[in-house]
């Protein structure tokens, strides 16, 4: 047992009262012959896995009177706002305009203070860092912090307890906190495949360069996967375990998003369908007999239908 797995195992117990155990669908068929397992982490509180990392950080942090601050493309901000509300902690969230109305409204629903800034995630991060310096609020990083990675790792501990049999897991990558949690938990015991949009290829770019580097970010999943630079924790673990990186196009992602709705009536955001896009597009072709699982990780698309409650 590594130090990572010890921390993840302890966090999994601490988080049980605060997070949902999300469902697993076994033997879902992609195409004519590939049977895979899906985990529906988009059914987590606030529609995304980041509640795990945010809640774990707040449970283990020494929270100052000014509370916490977070920069986010939307999902992390919603997760921090949710965790802060449930633990009675003040929160201020900074998001870029491209976060979109669904995620902005979700954050507002928690009662957290919210500032929408022009530009991209990096602009929100600069504003959040300045706020933390001015007020003494505790910065909750979206992906590149040990407690965040440990919190995301509890997802994979849970999945293993649910009977995960796959040899290979396909996981979408933005800043890398989620896949870092998978690598921290499974180590070399599973093949963990990074799936990235061609237009937000942070890990792929880092692996090619031999170090984290800034990459241009755009496309349909940019408000969730547009971190610009991979986290150092993720890069270290991905390098240690020789993590393969697969790229998919925006069209591939949108087709996978449509497939999840048409086949399973699961309406997710583009980032949530990115890992599945590796299979539906043929970017990742399993070997004969290879058991594959896919994580569906985000449920906050900007084109949610308006439903009137009766």
Quick tags:
310 residues, alpha/beta, Rossmann fold, 2 domains, six-stranded mixed beta sheet, four-stranded parallel beta sheet, 12 helices, 10 strands, globular
Query: In the residues, how many domains can be counted?
Result: 2
> How many strands, what sense, and barrel or not for the largest sheet?
6 strands, mixed
- Quaternary structure type: single chain
Could you tell me the strand content as a percent range? Answer: 15-25%
The arrangement of helices and strands along the chain is HEEHEHEHEHEHEHEHHHEHHE
For the record, give the distance between the C-alpha atoms at the N and C termini, rounded to a whole number.
52 Å
SS-based structural class? alpha/beta
Number of strands: 10
Question: How would you describe what is shown here?
Answer:
By secondary structure, the chain is α/β, with parallel strands linked by helices. It has 2 domains: about 200 residues, Rossmann fold (3-Layer(aba) Sandwich), CATH 3.40.50.1100; about 90 residues, Rossmann fold, CATH 3.40.50.1100. The protein has 12 helices and 10 strands. A 6-stranded mixed sheet has the order 1-2-10-7-8-9, sandwiched between helices. It has a 4-stranded parallel sheet with strand order 5-4-3-6, sandwiched between helices. α6 crosses α7. It is globular.
